[in-house]
Amino acid sequence: MHGPDPLHVRRAVELTRAGMWWEQLAHAFWPLTVILALALAALAFGATELVSSRALFWIMLGLALAVVVAAVWGLRRFRRPTREAARARVDAELPGRPLSALRDEVAIGAEDEGAFALWRAHQAHMRDQARAARMVIPDARLRWRDPMALRLVGLIAVAMTLIFAPSGRIGQGIAALGATFRPAPMAGPDLGAAPSWEGWAEPPAYTRRPTIYLNALPEGDALELPQGSRLSFRFYGEGIAFSQSIGAALPDTAASAAELAAEHSGLVEIAGRQFPITVIPDAAPRVEPVVAPDRRADGRFIQPFAASDDNGVVSGQAQIALDMGRIDRRFGLGTTPEARDPVAVELPLPASGNRKNLRGQLVTDLSRHPWANLPVTVTLEVVDGIGQKGVSAPVAMVLPGRRFFDPLAASLIEQRRDLLWSRENAPRGAQLLRAISWQPEEFMDPALAEGLRGAIGTLEAGPLTEEARNKLAQVLWDAAVALEDGGLADALERMQQAQERLSEAIRNGASPDEVQRLMDELREATEAYTDMLAQQGQDPSEKFDRSGQQGQQITGDQIQQMMDEIQRLMNEGRMAEAQQLLEQFNRMMQNMRVTQGQGGEGQGRQRPMDRLSQTLRDQQKLADEAMRQMQDQYGQWQPDGENGQGGSDSQELADRQRQLREDLGRQRGLMPGRGTPEGDQARRSLDDAGRAMEEAEQALRDGDASGAMERQAQAIQDMRDGMRALGEMSNQNQQQGQDGQPQPGGQEGGPEGPSTEGNGQRGLADDFRNQPEVDPLGRSTAGNGGSISTGEPLAEGTDPSRRARDLQDEIRRRSGERERPRDERDYLDRLLDNF
Question: Is the pTM of this model over 0.70?
Answer without folding.
Answer: no
